[in-house]
Specification:
Layout (H helix, E strand, L loop, with lengths): L3 H6 E2 L8 E2 L3 H4 L18 H9 L1 H10 L2 H4 L1 H15 L12 H35 L6
Antiparallel strand pairs: 1-2
Length: about 140
């Protein structure tokens, strides 16, 4: 034994001839630290999700306004916001550590980009789809 404590814990002898070691309760059953007291918690974890949540309506409104969709096609604005918030929502529930900070920022940016791109994407894909359906006889119009 190299340390006096290890030598004191060593209890040689017994009937089996094997050495017996007296371990303390703390050595056998370590107590885990509570999750709230973790040293690697990010104190500003909420900045990226909040920024994405508050700024997502702006690109959705601008993109829908550029498409003149407020009166004619309000589903473009609504769809853009629903898609944006569907991307931003998981960032509120990710682990609140510095290692997840980048993922929270990526989700917030992806939500804002989706809010801006949704009206243009649906309009761009919707017109050719309507023409194909019209020419193949699936739409009476």
């Amino acid at each position: 034994m190299s340390t006096p404590r290890a030598a004191a814990e060593y209890d040689g002898g017994g009937d089996s001839g094997a050495p017996a070691v007296n371990w303390s309760h703390e050595q056998r059953h370590p107590v885990p630290r509570p999750r709230s007291a973790r040293a690697d918690a990010d104190p500003r974890w909420w900045v990226a999700p909040l920024a994405g949540t508050l700024s997502a309506p702006l690109p959705a409104i601008v993109a829908s306004g550029a498409e003149n969709a407020f009166a004619e096609r309000p589903f473009l604005l609504t769809g853009g916001l629903v898609l944006a918030y569907a991307l931003i929502l998981p960032s509120w529930f990710l682990a609140r550590t510095p290692a997840r900070r980048r993922r929270r920022k990526e989700l917030a940016v992806a939500g804002c980009v989706a809010a801006a791109a949704f009206p243009a994407l649906i309009s761009t894909l919707g017109r050719p789809a309507f023409l194909v359906l019209l020419f193949t006889g699936h739409v009476d119009g």
